[in-house]
Amino acid sequence: MIPNSFLILAGGESSEKEISLQTGKSVYNAMQTLGWRSKLKIIHTFDEILHLNLLENPYVFLAFHGGFGENGCVQSFLSSKKFFYNGANPISSGIGINKLLTKLIASSLNIPCPKYILWNPEFEKKYSYNVVKHKLGSPFIVKPVSQGCSKGLSFVRNEHQYIQALQKASTFENQILMEEFIEGREFTVGILAGDILPMIEINHSHILFDYEAKFVSESTSYKEFSVLNSLKKYISQLSFELFKVLNIHDYGRLDFILDAHNIPHLLEINTLPGLTEKSVYPQACALKKIPYEEMIKKIIMSATIK
């Protein structure tokens, strides 16, 4: 049953606020096209969430990306009030936003992940550039543990870049992930209402699929991921298992890279994937002949029965 009123929440305090605002606007426009009564509310602080009048809106559509809107805080509050909302539950949201926890869960399911080292200021002397290079090979990746949209991401080839990368990532948070660089084909696997969506391959001219490649570059393109059916089936099984363990049913997205030996390595999970016009997730739905408005309807209907 479709609720009769919706409150769309967007904004937040994270570095992904700009993309959240775009997602919120896209979702609002879709609901207007569907003829649904909806309101778009721009949020600046978590305290505003606690003082919202939610009684008029039985369904809250979360258009947040990162920060308190995706890390389980908002989800915990809404769950305690027994309101419907989209995306993962509080625990899975907390796991999904943390790249280290995601790796630990994935590894327990025998899902391949790039080799990594967890860094924080206490480990500064322990993990010199040469130590990291020896463990991960060169080049390698440096990124904050809990940032999305590839914020704070760096590609490291030498000691000077390593120092710069740590400084860059540290502007977002103290916990930093240093990760093996795997050259290969980047692709995503989404789920919508319990069904795995067509896989999308990402083509771009950047060294990494960073913020600029995702949202600024005009050369980034998407197409259906073309591999042997047996490999596609294997990837689908891995993805479905991870979604199932994390109790993600209505929608979500996994990012992978396929190496030269056709081994898929999980990079991260997105529990509230971007829904802008340039986002990957709606592209996957389009390959399944699901228009944007129908995608929103499926997300909502699935979320109300979870």
Structure characteristics:
single chain, 306 residues, alpha+beta, Rossmann fold, D-amino Acid Aminotransferase, Chain A, domain 1, Dna Ligase, domain 1, 6-stranded antiparallel β-sheet
Explain what this protein looks like in three dimensions.
- The protein has 306 residues and is α+β, with helices and mostly antiparallel strands.
- The protein has three domains: 6-88, 3-Layer(aba) Sandwich (Rossmann fold); 96-113 and 182-303, 2-Layer Sandwich (D-amino Acid Aminotransferase, Chain A, domain 1), CATH 3.30.470.20; 116-180, Dna Ligase, domain 1 (2-Layer Sandwich).
- It has eleven helices and 14 strands.
- The protein has helices at 17-33, 46-50, 73-80, 90-97, 99-108, 129-136, 159-170, 211-215, 229-245, 280-287, 292-303; strands at residues 6-11, 38-43, 59-62, 84-85, 116-119, 140-144, 154-156, 176-180, 185-192, 195-196, 200-203, 221-224, 251-258, 264-270.
- The strands form three sheets. Strands 9, 10, 11, 12, 13 and 14 form a six-stranded antiparallel β-sheet that branches. The chain has a four-stranded parallel β-sheet with strand order 2-1-3-4, sandwiched between helices. Strands 5-8-6-7 form a four-stranded antiparallel β-sheet.
- α3 packs antiparallel against α4.
- The chain starts with 5 loop residues before the first strand and ends with a helix.
- The model has no long low-confidence stretch (mean pLDDT 91).
- Belongs to the D-alanine--D-alanine ligase family.
- Mg(2+) 1 binds at residues 255, 268.
- Pfam families: Dala_Dala_lig_C (PF07478).
